[in-house]
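We were asked to recover a plausible sequence for a given structure. The inputs and outputs are reproduced exactly as logged, with field labels preserved.

PROBLEM: sequence recovery
POSITIONS: 170
GIVEN STRUCTURE:
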């Protein structure tokens, strides 16, 4: 039998800014942006409040091109499978007829510091998702690569303009 202290210990899971869930034994699984957003939504209320499917839809789609409520069940199924395949405990507990809540036996630690939120023009997110799928990586990885590459180009252009301005001034 377990003693009282063992029964009260929660499994600690860590959700990184790169949408990877890991545990203290080094097991990991990667989520899509929408899957990670759902886990973050659960963490906002912990195991004390139920997150409705409507609340998930609002977090995921911000009232833009919202799909049917059934998509939430699909995301939950995918998240549960990824977590189970990695050998970690489930993060979702189903509250029948109401929604989902964070499993009371699990604590999910979120990354510290502010995140970056970007509002993208219509169609851009789908293109990023397609590119991430083709590269077998997360959307965060694709965006980081694009930002780094374009930042180098933008910096180079600025430096070239500054050099030209300095030459013209002399």
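RECOVERED SEQUENCE:
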């Amino acid at each position: 039998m377990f003693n009282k202290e063992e029964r009260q210990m929660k499994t600690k899971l860590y959700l990184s800014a790169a949408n990877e869930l890991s545990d203290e034994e080094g097991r990991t699984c990667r989520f899509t942006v929408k899957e990670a957003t759902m886990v973050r939504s659960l963490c906002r209320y912990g195991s004390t409040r139920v997150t409705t499917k409507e609340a998930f839809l609002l977090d995921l789609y911000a009232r833009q091109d919202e799909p049917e409520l059934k998509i939430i069940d699909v995301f939950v199924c995918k998240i549960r499978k990824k977590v189970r395949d990695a050998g970690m405990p489930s993060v979702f507990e189903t509250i029948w007829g109401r929604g989902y809540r964070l499993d009371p036996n699990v604590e999910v630690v979120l990354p510290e510091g502010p995140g970056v939120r970007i509002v993208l023009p219509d169609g851009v997110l789908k293109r990023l998702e397609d590119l991430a799928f083709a590269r077998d990586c997360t959307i965060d990885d694709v965006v980081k690569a694009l930002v780094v590459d374009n930042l180098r180009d933008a910096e180079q252009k600025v430096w070239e303009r500054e050099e030209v301005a300095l030459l013209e001034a002399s």
